[in-house]
Design brief:
2 copies of one chain form a homodimer. With about 160 residues, chain A is mainly alpha-helical. In chain A, about 65% of the residues lie in helices and about 5% in strands. Chain A binds a DNA duplex (23 and 23 nucleotides) through helix 2 and helix 5.
Chain lengths: ~160, ~160
DNA sequence: TATTGTTATACTCTATAACTATA
DNA sequence: TATAGTTATAGAGTATAACAATA
């Protein structure tokens, strides 16, 4: 019979009145949609680039943050890059397995630990940074600098509305 | 001893010359970074809102696309929302388990299948659409409309540079 | 052989909550 | 009890590649 599925006649059923009273916004009308699509897109490109060095985007973020911060406690790191402590633990574990990061007890409060890049990790950061620069340029280079600044400002506001 | 980890003296070691010749761009300098952070942020908010109806953001995208497209083949759907066929199969499977979508054989080429919303699925879409509207407004409402348009245009270009 | 769709596998990324050790 | 960190669990999201059925 090839009976029509329930939704098949939807448009016709909604008719004129419904079409007016019930104007559903399209998928593409939401900025969140484009944000998700673009982010996935860009992230995958970055993953490919970093993959040559066996590092993932999230791992890169941890490494880059450590590079600037020096040895810090996991909780501090989590706060800086906006992740939970559990998420940081997992990323750090992976980086430790790759000998890019080390963990040690701090001298004072024994509950605290200290995370730091290893020599190999610190050495790798500039190389990775260049890949990230290139990836970012490839993705956004066509956008005028002024527009990029506008976008960055807007995205920052979204994440930290308190600022 | 509390020996310093390898990276501890990094800054001092790099010194003046290195600081000039080797200026690594900060994490926050990359638009890709903010895109990822903001996208995760917004996506989680949306997930919370849609979660009340047992639907995930990715599932919503499929439902919304079906709502407009009517019954279509999985491959067509995949093309429209920019996913692989495998990914679409998985999402559709989940939606079928929730009785929001049905799958049937098309009349012609037996390789083709047809995906369509069920009555329940079609009925749910407008309600979800409103949640998505609200979520999008909550996330981006503070951004001027003009800026939003600029951002959307830029993101579109990133995803489809061929356009 | 080429194409459609499914299945199997494998990863990333993230969160929540329970648990351990320390304070 | 409160805090730092870990561990366990869970689930979303995606991709790739091998496979079956059909053309």
């Amino acid at each position: 019979m090839t009976r029509k599925p329930a939704a098949l006649g939807r448009r016709a059923n909604r008719g004129v009145a419904a079409a007016v009273s019930d104007p559903i916004s399209p998928l593409e009308a939401h900025l969140g949609y484009w944000l998700r699509v673009a982010s996935n897109h860009v992230d995958q490109q970055l993953a490919r680039a970093l993959g040559a060095h066996g590092v993932t985007p999230a791992e890169w973020v941890v490494m880059r943050a450590l590079y600037d911060a020096g040895p810090v406690a996991p909780s501090v790191l989590a706060g800086r890059i906006g992740l939970t402590r559990g998420a940081v633990t997992k990323l750090v574990d992976r980086l430790r397995a790759k000998a890019l990061v080390v963990r040690a007890h701090g001298p004072g409060d024994r509950r605290y630990q200290i995370i730091a890049l290893t020599g190999a990790g610190a050495k790798l950061v500039p190389a990775l940074a260049q890949l990230v620069d290139e990836s970012d340029s490839a993705a956004f280079g066509a956008i005028p600098a002024e527009t990029r600044a506008t976008i960055e400002a807007a995205l920052r506001r979204i994440v930290a509305p308190a600022d």
